């Protein structure tokens, strides 16, 4: 089925569209073509805004557009789809020349951004009173969790505040006065406050009658579906047979119950009669079910009916769910708990906002909430009018991943758009690839727009079907699997998406293949061996090992390493799991606390010392003494082995001078010198060098933030991953693989279940009719949650279940020619619940039977003791610089601090052309950036001097002249990595790339020597910048350093 007509129709710039683009359908190219077509008819490039969800996707789309424009300067290609792009790009270049857009010279005029970027634009027009710069957005999880926890603690302290005492104390009592659980639950809710904040406090949200009405509507709607199915299967003779049942609740059911809350009890009785405890149709009935021996005839009638239902899975699931319906009656205790918890959450949000103000920080959730508030539907705000005037065409990629907050923002942005006002909306995505529920994406919004539109627009729905990626066999096999896995009936509330088949673009004789490899229960080593075998057979191809959870790699990665397979692990190997990183953690702990016995024993065991266990045991006997001091005492050393004594003394010699000079250096400098003493740079591999650099950056950041402690360091390390080299064999999570393609895809761990979701203090769900249902977590006095809470958990569970289907679809559609599915079975030889294998079981279970599930994975029982790694020859310690030769003065000793400080502070000044600041503003910012009070005055003087030098420079007017081409903190993508350039502009058709360097001169250094040092140090960096920009700009490029320390603009010849 050719979809070329749909692709052509999607380029009609007079209409708005919603495009469903399945995996491999060329979505990005279509989006690029639409964007180019709109540019070719627009008055200015800024009137066309394209948005997506990640910076990576923004960079890809922007690169596609720029490449198309550059290609249009050459010959017309032969391929039809490329000709379309070429012709559209040519039209854009003609318009650019006619209207002096200079798009190739000024690509920043192409408005392609993230949705968060739009939120930032909106909120930047509403700065907080008294602030001169935007708040810093906290992006690291550990920092977010820290401030959420701090807000939770402040909330608990509000127990003594008048007006808050009752709600806080009663909520705490509800949780059995468990303070840690209080903190945990409030922190969790703050991290997801965009899901409930704008819903929980609307009118009637906590009104008992409104909640009863919501519950009644849910029950009625569900029972109507049950009744419709039951009418087909339950006839009069069925109910006649029930009339003799010995159970009164069953015998009184004379016909199908009504589809109302009043009829719910009888539906539950029917469900119990017809279904087993596992929720399957009964195959036998006994006296326990009300059918003793004397009711043989009646039992036969009922069993015949049940036998006829054996294939009615949809009806079975509907009937099962009558037992999970919410409560219609909300008791007084439940309502009091809801209101108390709601008040506590309101206090928590207020406390969080206070902390944000105090720290001049925010998070992406708050940015989105603030942007939404700025575009309040019933207020004509200046930003709304500005954007409505400026933006004529809006394109949104990956629309299936939109959250309710983002959807509301988009809706407000186009609220005044009408069908015939020449403004268009272009939404493109694939609901079958919506896999970001953990980021609050709501795939049901895609279905909602398809059915009822958005704001005043009802975009035309188009569906693409051609798959340009995969072989025909792969496409057909995926169609077969997922047509049965995906639900037949769509349901926006729980994210139930029906499957849309694809058609391969390639020839029918392709050699694609899908292979399934089953293994016995917990035979993870055998599974890993099979992964290795597949990789070894495909070393000349692009191969991806896709995993659902990183724990699935525990057996695979060591096996690949042992076989010398070079692979690229994309954020799958946590940095703190690397042995060298663990050694650095121990060294850091030991230097932070000489009394940390465990850390010092680990330091002595690490490869740089490598004491044997018998020596470690001897040292550990001295429980009352500091380990570092012990390894200097002759009386202790004589009890060690000769080798151990030599190694311990060598380590002492390497570290003693550093520890004696503790106060003369920043901690990160001291740590770096200690690492150099123990394992000199020349002894480190490239991999360990990268780990060392990552680790020192983490410690430096903690020190600058004033949070130099092992807990914060570990929190930062938890978010980092070990560096990896480039390879055609890649290991990544399924989420990371989205949008990518590979010759061979290997999916191990199909038999393993994911982690369970955390319980919330309040479960809340808004339904399509805008009705709201919510329930509190069970109190310490309750043995189980309320029916309503369990129903809402079930809704969340269903959402997760349907997303699992989509996640498996994403994984299997990455392949071009081969898919390998690997799974371990349960003890019973079946697929475990909540696993990918369970989804595939109907299609693959015939292969389960040929497997000997009793076969023992003997390799799994072999636990080898870790081998001792150590230098064969201890390295000699390098002497530390003495006082007589010490050149580390204040400005140099805090140079790493300045690197962060000036990289933020000075650049922000330059962005807004601020070159004079009051001392109070400088002090506030320095404190926010982590400077201690004792260093404040000296640092302030240094800042003031740098700004003064800049202001008085002879190049000042030329360098900071207002030009339309000027970009500050300009971001470009190169080989998947972000490159940020301080300042660039076009002057006399020359692109100037200027990098600000704030390092100070040494006391004995002349300007000439300083300039020479900066040139040598940074030429390579600027050469790299030039190379990156040469792919974007056609201008001649010149590079320069600007050093305010010496008031010089230093041109670098590259």
TrEMBL record:
Keyword terms, alphabetized: ATP-binding, DNA damage, DNA repair, DNA-binding, Exonuclease, Helicase, Hydrolase, Isomerase, Nuclease, Nucleotide-binding
Catalysed reactions, as listed in the record: Couples ATP hydrolysis with the unwinding of duplex DNA by translocating in the 3'-5' direction; ATP + H2O = ADP + phosphate + H(+)
Nuclease among keywords: yes
Entry's Gene Ontology molecular function annotations: 3'-5' DNA helicase activity; ATP binding; ATP hydrolysis activity; DNA binding; exonuclease activity
Bilayer-crossing regions: none
Pfam families cross-referenced by the UniProt entry: UvrD-helicase, UvrD_C
EC number: 5.6.2.4
CC terms in the record's Gene Ontology section: cytosol; DNA helicase complex
Residues in UvrD-like helicase ATP-binding domain copies: 1-471
GO biological process terms on file: recombinational repair
PROSITE patterns recorded: UVRD_HELICASE_ATP_BIND, UVRD_HELICASE_CTER
Domain UvrD-like helicase C-terminal: 483-739
Descriptive protein name: DNA 3'-5' helicase
């Amino acid at each position: 089925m050719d979809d070329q007509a749909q692709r052509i129709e999607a380029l009609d710039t007079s209409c708005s569209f919603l495009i469903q683009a399945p995996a491999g359908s060329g979505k990005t190219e279509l989006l690029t073509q639409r964007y180019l077509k709109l540019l070719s008819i627009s008055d200015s490039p800024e009137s066309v805004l394209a948005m997506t969800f990640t910076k990576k996707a923004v960079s890809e789309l922007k690169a596609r557009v720029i490449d198309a424009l550059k290609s249009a300067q050459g010959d017309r290609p032969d391929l039809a789809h490329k000709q379309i792009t070429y012709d559209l790009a040519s039209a854009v270049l003609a318009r650019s020349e006619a209207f002096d857009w200079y798009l190739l010279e000024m690509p920043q005029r192409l408005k392609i951004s993230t949705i968060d970027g739009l939120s930032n634009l909106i909120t930047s027009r509403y700065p907080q009173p008294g602030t001169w710069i935007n708040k810093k957005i906290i992006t690291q999880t550990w920092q977010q969790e820290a401030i959420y926890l701090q807000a939770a603690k402040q909330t608990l302290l509000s127990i003594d505040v008048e007006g808050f005492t009752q709600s806080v104390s009663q909520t705490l009592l509800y949780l059995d006065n468990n303070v840690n659980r209080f903190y945990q639950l409030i922190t969790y809710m703050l991290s997801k406050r965009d899901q409930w904040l704008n819903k929980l406090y609307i009118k009637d949200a906590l009104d008992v009658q409104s909640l009863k009405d919501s519950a009644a509507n849910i029950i009625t709607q569900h029972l109507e579906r049950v009744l419709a199915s039951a009418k087909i299967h339950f006839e009069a003779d069925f109910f006649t047979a029930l009339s003799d049942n010995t159970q009164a609740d069953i015998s009184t059911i004379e016909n199908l119950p009504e589809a109302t809350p009043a009829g719910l009890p009888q539906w539950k009785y029917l469900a119990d009669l017809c279904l087993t405890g596992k929720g399957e149709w009964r195959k036998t009935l006994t006296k326990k079910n009300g059918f003793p021996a004397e009711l043989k005839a009646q039992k036969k009638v009922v069993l015949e009916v049940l036998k006829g239902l054996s294939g009615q899975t949809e009806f079975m699931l509907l009937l099962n769910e009558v037992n999970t319906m919410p409560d219609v009656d909300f008791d007084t205790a439940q309502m009091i708990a809801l209101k108390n918890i709601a008040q506590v959450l309101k206090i928590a949000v207020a406390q969080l906002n206070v902390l944000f103000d105090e720290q001049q920080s925010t998070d992406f959730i708050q940015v989105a909430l603030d942007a939404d508030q700025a575009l309040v539907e019933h207020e004509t705000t200046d930003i709304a009018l500005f954007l409505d005037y400026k933006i004529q065409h809006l394109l949104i990629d990956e629309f299936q991943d939109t959250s309710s907050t983002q959807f509301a923002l988009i809706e407000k942005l186009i609220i005044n758009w009408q069908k015939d006002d020449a403004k268009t909306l272009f939404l493109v995505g694939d609901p079958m690839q919506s896999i970001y529920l953990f980021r609050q994406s709501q795939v049901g919004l895609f279905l909602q727009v398809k059915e009822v539109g958005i704001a005043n627009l009802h975009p035309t729905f188009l569906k693409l079907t051609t798959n340009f990626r995969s072989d025909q066999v792969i496409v057909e096999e995926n169609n077969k699997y997922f047509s049965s896995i995906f639900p037949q009936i769509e349901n926006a509330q729980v994210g139930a998406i029906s499957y849309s088949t694809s058609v391969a673009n390639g020839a029918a004789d392709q050699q694609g293949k899908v292979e399934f490899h089953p293994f016995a229960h917990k035979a993870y080593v055998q599974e890993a061996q099979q992964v290795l075998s597949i990789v070894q057979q495909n070393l000349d191809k692009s191969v991806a090992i896709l995993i659902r959870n990183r724990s699935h790699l525990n057996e695979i990665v060591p096996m690949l390493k042992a076989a010398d397979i070079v692979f690229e692990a994309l954020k799958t190997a946590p940095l703190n799991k690397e042995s060298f990183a663990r050694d650095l953690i121990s060294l850091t702990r030991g230097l932070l606390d000489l009394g940390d016995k465990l850390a010092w024993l680990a330091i002595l065991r690490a490869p740089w010392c490598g004491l044997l266990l018998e020596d470690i045991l001897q040292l550990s006997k001295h429980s009352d003494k500091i380990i570092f001091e012990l390894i200097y005492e002759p009386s202790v050393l004589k009890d060690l082995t000769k080798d151990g004594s030599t190694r311990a003394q060598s380590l002492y010699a390497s570290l003693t001078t550093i520890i004696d000079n503790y106060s003369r250096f920043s901690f990160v400098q001291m740590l770096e010198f200690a690492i150099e003493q123990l394992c000199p740079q020349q002894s480190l591999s490239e991999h360990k060098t990268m780990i060392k650099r990552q680790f020192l950056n983490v410690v430096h950041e903690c020190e600058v933030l004033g949070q130099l402690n092992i807990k914060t360091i570990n929190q930062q390390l938890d978010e980092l991953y070990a560096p990896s080299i480039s390879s055609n064999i890649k290991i990544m999570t399924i989420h990371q693989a989205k949008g990518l393609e590979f010759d061979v895809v290997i999916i191990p761990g199909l038999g393993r279940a994911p982690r369970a979701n955390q319980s919330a203090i309040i479960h809340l769900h808004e339904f399509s009719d805008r009705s709201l249902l919510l329930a509190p977590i069970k109190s310490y006095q309750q043995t189980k949650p309320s029916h309503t809470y369990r129903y809402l958990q079930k809704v969340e569970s269903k959402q997760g279940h349907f997303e699992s289907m989509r996640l498996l679809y994403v994984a299997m559609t990455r392949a071009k020619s081969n898919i390998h599915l690997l799974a371990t079975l349960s003890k019973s030889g079946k697929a475990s619940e909540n696993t990918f294998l369970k989804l595939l079981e109907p299609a693959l279970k015939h292969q389960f039977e040929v497997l000997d599930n009793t076969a023992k994975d003997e390799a799994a029982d072999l636990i080898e003791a870790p081998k001792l790694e150590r230098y064969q020859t201890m390295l000699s310690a390098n002497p530390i610089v003495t006082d007589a030769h010490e050149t580390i003065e204040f400005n140099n000793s805090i140079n790493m601090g300045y690197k962060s400080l000036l990289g933020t502070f000075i650049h922000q000044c330059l962005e807004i052309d601020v070159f004079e600041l009051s001392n109070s503003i400088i002090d506030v910012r320095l404190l926010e950036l982590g400077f201690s009070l004792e260093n404040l005055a000296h640092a302030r003087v240094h800042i003031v001097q740098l700004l003064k030098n800049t202001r008085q420079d002879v190049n000042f007017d030329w360098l900071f002249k207002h030009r339309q081409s000027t970009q500050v903190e300009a971001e470009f993508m190169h080989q998947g990595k972000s490159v940020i350039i301080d300042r660039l502009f076009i002057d006399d058709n020359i692109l100037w790339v200027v990098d600000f360097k704030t390092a100070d001169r040494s006391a004995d250094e002349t300007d000439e020597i300083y300039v020479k040092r900066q040139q040598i140090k940074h030429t390579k960096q600027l050469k790299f910048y030039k190379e990156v920009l040469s792919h974007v700009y056609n201008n001649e490029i010149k590079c320069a350093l600007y050093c305010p320390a010496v008031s010089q603009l230093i041109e670098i010849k590259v």
